[in-house]
Design brief:
Length: 411
């Protein structure tokens, strides 16, 4: 049997738990904090594979093993690796208070509506995009993905970072800083977790389901759900297919270029993605912001004309929606395709723009497909009868980035 004990947030390990162990595995600070049985082998966790091999030898001989871990070892912890290797039936898990729970407790906030993301040993961009899209996020940090890196990526966003270090120890510190302040400091290796808060939305409504991401009940909303100018809005039929091809999801970044009313940007944000909307008119910028606020989502709005303004956007998007169809459209699509990691979707009304937009996608190494969308909506007539009212036809193209070897690049 492998006994897995959560510790490290202020709770001492019961001496009876380790009393019969013949092998004790854990971080150095965990091992130093407990009294080990006489004669027990001790392994300081570094690379996981050698420790699992040693644990395997003891398990095979039915000799008792204790593994010490931080907080709740079943929450982004070692329980996963142990269960995969030895089977969950061999584990006796005794969780402690997780660093996330402890950090929210120190801050005086509930966390049933928080998103929790691990950046330990992972690309931090997923954590950054979740922090941009959601009002309450806990980030489990690691080398190269700590408070400084998060702060640098979130500089300029209306967020507060709560940096909790050495939780449960005499050196515990819990500090509230701006992203810019976080970016300018060396935080060392004692950081336990970082909370990213949009304080205006941090106290959300009472929840019956835990978790930060609540799937919207509907999408492709009616145009009446958005403030827009002179019907200058992506119609819901077009938006429905555009959303299907964009595939916005939590942890990803979407650009809405030529945002207009911001209807696509808002819908992507409602589906959990971080969103940057680019709009060239001042009144359009305010309209996008107002629509985002009306739907309770956070959309970063950039005032400027594409393609030039796109060079100032630091992070490459996963998906891009391009609306409008002016003479600059091929250059806009090309600029977006160079940056998009996965998909570019283009909506246009003018037939003349289609070949150039398609060439821009294929020239950037994307596959390309598309449709002409023509729809007619039910409309009332006098006498309690109904007619079909045609909407303007719209061309929708979508490009998907090809694997490297299909682009002729060695992978």
């Amino acid at each position: 049997m492998i006994t897995v004990v959560g510790t490290g947030t202020g709770e001492p390990v019961d001496a009876q738990v380790t009393a019969g162990a013949e092998l004790v595995v854990g971080g150095r600070r965990h091992l130093d904090a407990v009294r080990l049985p006489e004669g027990a082998e001790r392994i300081v966790l570094g690379p996981l594979a050698p420790a699992l091999d040693t644990i395997g030898k003891y398990v095979a001989e039915e000799r008792p093993v204790v593994v010490l871990a931080s907080g709740d070892p079943g929450f982004f912890g070692i329980v996963r690796a142990l269960a995969e290797r030895f089977g969950p039936e061999r584990l006796d898990v005794r969780p402690g208070v997780s660093s996330v729970a402890a950090a929210f407790a120190r801050t005086g906030l509930t966390w049933d509506d928080a998103v929790v993301v691990s950046a330990h040993g992972r690309d931090p961009r997923t954590a950054v995009n979740l922090c941009r899209a959601h009002p309450k996020v806990a980030v489990l940090t690691g080398p190269g993905a700590g408070p400084a890196e998060l702060g640098a990526a979130l500089r300029g966003d209306a967020r507060v970072l709560v940096v909790a270090s050495a939780l449960g120890s005499a050196e515990e510190r819990v500090e509230r800083v701006t992203p810019a302040e976080a970016a300018g400091r060396d935080w060392g290796a004692a950081v336990s977790v970082v909370l990213c808060l949009d304080e205006a939305r941090a106290l959300g409504p009472v929840r019956t389901v835990a978790g930060g991401f609540e799937q919207p009940a509907d999408w492709a909303l009616d145009e009446a759900e958005f403030d827009h100018r002179d019907s200058m809005i992506t119609k819901f039929e077009v938006r429905a297919l555009a959303l299907a091809r964009l595939g916005p999801r939590p942890g990803e970044l979407v650009w809405d270029v030529g945002a207009g009313s911001g209807s696509v940007a808002v819908e992507c944000a409602r589906l959990g993605a971080a969103v940057t909307a680019v709009e060239k008119t001042p009144d359009g910028v305010e309209r996008v912001r107002a629509n985002a606020a009306a739907h309770g989502v956070d959309v970063r709005v950039v005032h400027g004309s594409a393609p030039d303004v796109l060079a100032g956007l630091d992070e490459d998007p996963d998906a891009v929606f391009v609306g409008g169809g002016g003479r600059e459209l091929p250059a806009v699509v090309t600029a977006c395709a160079r940056r998009a990691r996965r998909t570019v979707v283009v909506a246009m009304a003018a037939l003349d723009r289609v070949p150039a937009a398609r060439a821009a996608l294929t020239g950037a190494g994307f596959s390309c497909d598309g449709v002409l969308l023509q729809s007619s909506r039910l409309a009332p007539l006098p006498g309690d009868v109904t007619r079909l009212a045609a909407t303007n036809p719209v061309f929708l193209l979508w490009g998907v980035r090809l694997p490297a070897r299909e682009e002729g690049v060695d992978g």
